[in-house]
C-alpha cells in the first residue's frame, strides 16, 4: 500500500490545482512556455493554405480537410525529414526509411511514388514547380529547421485549384515572422549516430523594417552507418520585411549546401517462426549495403573517359532561393498579392542499389558459360576485389553465402526555375450575403539538365558490403581469367543525357459565397497550359574489349527532340455549414488533373505523355472545443491514367528495362483526426485512416505475350489501415511534457499482382521536454523504441507489376531505421 500512496501523493503534488478542461475558462488559462497548441478557433489556428480572399478563417471554419502542425507539436515530434513531418496527417501514408530525403508519400490512395500526388509549398508558393521532377523529389531540395514556424496540410479539396501538381493535397511550410520586439532562439542537438546539429533564428525590428536570419548546420554519421559521414551541411536564410498601413513587402534569400545519405533496401529473410528479419551476418536495424569499398569508384564510360562515382556525396544539393512577397489593399475590401520565387539548384544524387539478391552458388551456375572463354579453367569463383587471395565461401560466407548484384548509380540535375503567383481579391456584399472573389495568375518556367550513369557491381552480403570479382580458376585454384574489373561486372548499364525547358501558365477564379451566417458555398475553376520542349540523347552500345566493358551504353551522337503542349481545366465546389463557431459540416467535389512535366521525358523522349485526371469527393464533420477536437472525413478518389514505372534489371544483358504503364484506381476511405484534453495534465491525440484502394481495369501483357488481369487488386504500398496515437503528460504546471507515439501500418503489397505482401507493423517513439527556465528547455527523443523491423518497401527494381521476389524466402526490402537517441538544448530570448 505504501508505494501506491506515495505515487498518488506525488501525482497530486505534480497536478495540484488541475481541474477538468471542460470546467475551465479557456480564455483565462495561461499558456505555459512551449505548451502544445490548442485549437477550436484560437487566433493561432488561422489557416492560409488552400484558399484566397481578404478575410481569415480558422480550421473549424474550413470547407475542406486540413491539418495544422504547430511549432511546439513539430518540435516535440522532431521529424528527421520532410516526409517524417507528415506522419501525423490522416490520409497520408509516408515512407521515410530512405533517410533525410527522397521519401515517398501516398495520399488518399493515389499510387504515385515520391511527391507526385501532393505539392510542397514554402510560404504559399511551390518549393519546386513539379515536386516529382524525374528522380528529383521536392523533399530533396527542402530542409526543415527552426526558421519554420508551422505546417499546414490540405488533403484533396481546393489544393489543385490554387497550386499546380497538387491533385491530392498541398503541404505548406510557413516561416517565422518577426514581431514588434527582438527575439530569437538557438538549439543544439546531439544524436547517438554521431549527430551534431545547431539551429538558430533571430529576428528584430530595425527602424521601420524587420530583419531576420536563421538556419542550421549539422554533421551526422547516419543511423545506418556507411562507414563515412553520410549527412553534412546546412542552410542559411535572411529576410527583410516592412509593413505600411495598406501594404506589406518581404524579401527572403536562402542558400542551402547540404549532403544526405540515401538508404536503399537490405537483404531480408522469412524465418521458420514466421518473422522477417535481416539475413544472418547483416544488421537489419543499423546495417547498409553501402560502405567504404563502394564509396568511390572510377567507372569507365563508353568513350574511355572516367566517371568518378562518389557515394560520400550521396544526395548533394546546392541551392540558391530568392522569394519576394507583396500585398497591397488599394481600397477597403480589395487586396492585390504577389509571390515570386527564383531557384538555382544543382543536385548530385548517388546511391548503391541492390538490384538482385541470390545465392553465390546459383549465380555462379548461371554464369557457367563463361568457362568457355577461359581455356584451362575448370571452375568459377568469387574472390574479394581488395583481397584477391581470399576465396568466397559459396556455402556460408558471412553466415549466408549470398551475393548482391548492385547498381552504382549517379545522377546530375541542374535546375533553374522562376515561379510567380499573382492574386486580385475583392470582398463585397449583396444584401445579407457576401462574396469573396479572387482572380489569380500563376507562371512558371523551368530549365533542367539531366544526366545519369550507372554500373553493375558484385557485392557480398554484410554490413558495408565488399566488392567481389568473378574469376575462372584451373584445377590447382590458380586464376586463369578475371571477368570483372575490381568488382564491376558491367560498366554503363544506364546512361542518359537530356535537356528540357517547360513553361506553365494558369488562370484561376475562386469565390467564397457566404449565403447566411451559417452557410457558405465556395468553388472555383483553374485553366492551366504547359509547353515542354527539349532534347534527349539517343543511345548505342559499345564494346571496349574487356568483359566488364563489353556492353557499355553511351550516346550515339543523335538526339531526339520534343515540343509538346498540354492543357486542362480543374474545378471544385464545396459547401460548409456551421452549427456553431466550433462545429460544422462540409462537403466537396473536385475534378483535378496532373499535367506532364520534364520528368516524363528524361528517359523516353519519343512517347508523348498523357494528362492524368482524377475525381475527388469528401464529406466531413468538424468539432473543436477546449475538451475535444474531432475531424472525421469520408473520401472517394477516382484516379484515371495514373502512371507508374515497371523497372526490371536483367543480369544476363546487364541492362535495366523501364516500362511506363497506366491504370485507373478507385479508393473509398475514412479519415479521423482528433485531440482529447480531459484534464490539464493529460491529452490524447490520434489519427486513423481506413481505406479500400483498388485498381480498375488494369491488364498487362508481358514480354512473352502472356496477359494478366489485375482488376480489383489492391494498390501497391497502400495499407487499408493506418493508426497513430499520441498520449501526453503535462506536469509541473506545463514545464514538463512527456509523450509517446504508437504508429501502426497495415499490410501492403509490393506489386500490382499482389504477389508480394509486406506484413503489418507497429512502432513506438518517445519524446520529452523540460523547461529549465522561461527561456531554456531541454528535449529528449527515442526513435523506434521497440526496434521494429517493419518493412516499408519491397524491391522496386524487381518489378512493380509482377515482382520477381514473389515466393522467395530471401529478398530485398527496406525496413524502418533502428532505434536511435537524440537530445537537444534550446534557448529562447
From TrEMBL:
It is a multi-pass membrane protein. InterPro entries: Beta-barrel_TonB, Beta-barrel_TonB_sf, Plug_dom, Plug_dom_sf, TonB-dep_rcpt-like. It is found in: Cell outer membrane. SUPFAM superfamilies: Porins (SSF56935). Keywords: Cell outer membrane, Ion transport, Iron, Iron transport, Membrane, Receptor, Signal, TonB box, Transmembrane, Transmembrane beta strand, Transport. Residues 1-23 form the signal peptide. Its main location: membrane. Residues 26-49 are annotated as: Disordered. Residues 59-170 form the TonB-dependent receptor plug domain. Residues 307-785 form the TonB-dependent receptor-like beta-barrel domain. Gene3D superfamilies: TonB-dependent receptor, beta-barrel domain, TonB-dependent receptor, plug domain. Belongs to the TonB-dependent receptor family. This is TonB-dependent receptor. The lineage of its organism: Bacteria, Pseudomonadati, Pseudomonadota, Alphaproteobacteria, Sphingomonadales.
Amino acid at each position: 500500500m505504501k508505494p501506491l500512496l506515495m505515487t498518488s501523493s506525488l501525482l497530486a503534488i505534480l497536478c495540484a490545482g488541475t481541474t477538468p478542461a471542460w470546467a475551465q475558462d479557456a480564455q483565462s488559462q495561461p499558456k505555459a512556455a512551449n505548451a502544445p497548441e490548442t485549437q477550436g478557433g484560437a487566433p493561432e489556428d488561422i489557416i492560409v493554405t488552400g484558399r484566397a480572399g481578404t478575410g481569415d478563417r480558422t480550421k473549424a471554419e474550413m470547407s475542406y480537410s486540413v491539418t495544422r502542425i504547430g511549432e511546439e507539436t513539430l518540435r516535440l515530434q522532431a521529424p528527421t525529414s520532410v516526409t517524417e513531418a507528415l506522419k501525423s496527417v490522416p490520409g497520408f501514408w509516408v515512407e521515410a526509411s530512405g533517410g533525410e530525403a527522397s521519401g515517398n508519400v501516398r495520399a488518399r490512395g493515389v499510387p504515385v511514388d515520391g511527391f507526385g500526388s501532393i505539392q510542397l509549398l514554402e510560404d504559399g508558393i511551390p518549393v519546386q514547380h513539379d515536386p516529382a521532377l524525374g528522380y528529383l523529389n521536392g523533399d530533396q531540395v527542402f530542409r526543415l529547421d527552426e526558421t519554420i514556424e508551422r505546417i499546414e496540410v490540405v488533403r484533396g479539396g481546393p489544393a489543385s485549384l490554387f497550386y499546380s501538381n497538387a491533385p491530392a493535397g498541398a503541404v505548406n511550410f510557413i516561416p517565422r515572422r518577426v514581431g514588434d520586439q527582438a527575439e530569437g532562439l538557438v538549439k543544439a542537438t546531439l544524436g547517438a549516430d554521431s549527430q551534431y546539429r545547431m539551429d538558430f533564428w533571430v529576428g528584430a525590428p530595425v527602424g521601420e523594417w524587420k530583419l531576420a536570419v536563421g538556419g542550421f548546420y549539422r554533421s551526422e554519421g547516419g543511423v545506418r552507418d556507411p562507414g563515412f559521414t553520410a549527412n553534412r551541411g546546412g542552410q542559411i536564410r535572411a529576410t527583410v520585411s516592412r509593413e505600411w498601413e495598406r501594404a506589406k513587402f518581404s524579401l527572403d534569400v536562402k542558400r542551402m549546401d547540404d549532403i544526405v545519405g540515401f538508404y536503399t533496401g537490405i537483404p531480408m529473410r522469412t524465418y521458420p517462426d514466421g518473422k522477417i528479419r535481416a539475413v544472418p551476418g547483416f544488421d537489419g536495424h543499423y546495417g547498409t549495403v553501402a560502405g567504404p569499398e563502394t564509396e568511390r569508384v572510377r567507372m569507365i564510360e563508353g568513350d574511355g573517359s572516367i566517371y568518378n562515382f562518389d557515394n560520400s556525396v550521396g544526395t548533394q544539393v546546392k541551392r540558391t532561393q530568392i522569394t519576394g512577397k507583396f500585398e497591397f489593399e488599394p481600397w477597403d475590401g480589395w487586396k492585390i498579392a504577389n509571390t515570386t520565387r527564383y531557384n538555382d539548384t544543382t543536385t548530385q544524387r548517388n546511391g548503391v542499389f541492390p538490384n538482385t539478391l541470390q545465392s553465390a552458388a546459383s549465380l555462379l551456375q548461371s554464369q557457367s558459360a563463361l568457362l568457355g572463354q577461359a581455356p584451362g579453367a575448370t571452375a568459377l569463383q568469387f574472390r574479394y576485389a581488395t583481397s584477391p587471395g581470399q576465396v568466397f565461401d559459396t556455402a556460408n560466407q558471412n553466415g549466408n553465402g549470398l551475393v548482391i548484384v548492385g547498381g552504382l548509380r549517379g545522377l546530375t540535375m541542374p535546375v533553374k526555375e522562376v515561379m510567380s503567383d499573382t492574386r486580385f481579391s475583392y470582398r463585397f456584399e449583396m444584401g445579407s450575403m457576401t462574396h469573396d472573389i479572387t482572380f489569380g495568375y500563376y507562371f512558371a518556367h523551368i530549365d533542367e539538365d539531366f544526366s545519369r550513369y550507372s554500373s553493375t557491381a558484385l557485392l557480398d552480403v554484410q554490413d558495408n558490403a565488399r566488392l567481389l570479382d568473378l574469376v575462372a580458376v584451373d584445377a590447382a585454384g590458380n586464376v586463369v581469367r578475371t571477368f570483372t574489373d575490381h568488382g564491376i561486372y558491367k560498366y554503363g548499364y544506364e546512361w542518359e543525357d537530356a535537356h528540357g525547358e517547360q513553361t506553365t501558365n494558369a488562370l484561376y477564379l475562386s469565390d467564397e459565397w457566404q449565403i447566411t451566417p451559417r452557410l457558405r458555398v465556395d468553388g472555383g475553376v483553374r485553366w492551366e497550359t504547359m509547353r515542354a520542349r527539349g532534347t534527349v540523347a539517343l543511345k548505342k552500345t559499345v564494346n571496349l574489349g574487356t568483359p566488364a566493358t563489353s556492353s557499355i551504353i553511351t550516346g550515339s551522337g543523335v538526339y531526339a527532340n520534343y515540343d509538346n503542349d498540354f492543357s486542362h481545366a480543374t474545378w471544385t465546389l464545396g459547401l460548409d455549414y456551421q452549427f456553431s463557431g466550433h462545429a460544422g459540416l462540409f462537403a466537396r467535389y473536385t475534378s483535378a488533373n496532373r499535367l506532364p512535366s520534364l520528368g516524363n521525358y528524361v528517359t523516353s523522349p519519343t512517347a508523348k505523355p498523357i494528362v492524368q485526371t482524377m475525381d475527388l469527393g469528401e464529406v466531413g464533420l468538424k468539432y473543436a472545443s477546449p475538451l475535444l477536437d474531432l475531424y472525421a472525413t469520408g473520401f472517394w478518389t477516382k484516379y484515371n491514367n495514373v502512371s507508374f514505372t515497371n523497372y526490371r534489371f536483367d543480369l544476363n544483358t546487364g541492362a535495366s528495362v523501364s516500362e511506363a504503364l497506366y491504370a485507373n484506381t478507385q479508393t473509398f476511405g475514412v479519415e479521423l483526426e482528433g485531440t482529447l484534453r480531459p484534464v490539464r495534465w493529460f491529452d490524447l491525440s490520434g489519427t486513423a485512416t481506413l481505406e479500400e484502394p483498388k485498381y480498375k481495369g488494369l491488364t498487362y501483357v508481358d514480354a512473352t505475350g502472356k496477359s494478366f488481369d489485375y482488376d480489383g487488386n489492391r494498390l501497391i504500398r497502400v495499407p487499408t489501415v493506418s493508426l497513430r496515437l499520441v498520449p501526453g503528460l503535462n506536469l509541473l504546471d506545463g514545464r514538463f511534457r512527456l509523450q509517446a507515439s504508437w504508429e501502426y501500418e497495415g499490410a501492403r503489397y509490393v506489386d500490382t499482382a499482389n504477389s508480394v505482401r509486406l506484413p503489418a507493423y507497429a512502432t513506438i517513439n518517445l519524446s520529452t521536454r523540460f523547461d529549465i527556465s522561461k527561456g531554456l528547455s531541454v528535449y529528449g527523443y527515442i526513435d523506434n523504441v521497440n526496434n521494429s523491423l517493419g518493412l516499408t518497401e519491397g524491391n522496386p527494381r524487381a518489378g512493380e507489376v509482377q515482382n520477381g521476389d514473389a515466393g522467395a524466402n530471401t529478398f530485398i526490402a527496406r525496413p524502418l531505421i533502428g532505434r536511435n537517441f537524440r537530445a537537444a538544448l534550446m534557448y529562447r530570448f
